[in-house]
Amino acid sequence: MRKLLTIAAIALAPLAFSSQAAMSPHMEKTLVAVCKAGASNSIIEFNGTMKEYRINKQRVFPRLVCNDQSFHQFALSNGADRTAAKIERYSLGTVTIKDLAMNYGDEEILAVNF
Question: From residue 55, how far is each of 64, 78, 81, 90, 109 by CA, in Å?
């Protein structure tokens, strides 16, 4: 019985993972339209697409990837400078974490031998 359950779980596992990764056709159509509007370099077309699909810029632009590039980089690579300038503030910056305790040079380390 235990062997049968294990086989059934292994057989059904790929089906469970594939359903989570799928994107609805409407969502895919919307994101393709946003990518095309971003590459057009027309602010009027871009704003119209944003209003038509009710896109939340703060949520979508840091996560949107068009042709394996961030949306901002995608717009720049297609020559859409005006569109890229409009969405530049929504792109993610870089954060560095520096350990202050380990920020000493060799001359500042106090070593004691006993």
Answer: 11, 21, 20, 13, 53
CB atoms within 10 A of CB 55: 18
User: Cα separation of 63 and 91, whole Å?
Assistant: 9
- pLDDT digits over 12-66, tens only? 555 444 444 578 889 899 999 999 999 999 999 999 999 999 998 888 888 888 9
Q: Give Cα 59 to chain centroid, integer Å.
A: 10
The tokens 């001359």 sit on which residue?
107
CA distance 26 to 24: 5
**Would you state the structure tokens that stand for residue 78, as one six-digit string?**
């297609």
**Is residue 64 packed enough to be buried (19+ CB in 10 Å), middle (13-18) or exposed (0-12)?**
buried
Between CA 23 and CA 21 the distance in angstroms is 7
Question: Residue 37: which of 1, 98, 87 has the closest Cα?
Answer: 87
- Helix, strand, coil % over all residues of the chain, rounded to 5: 65, 5, 30
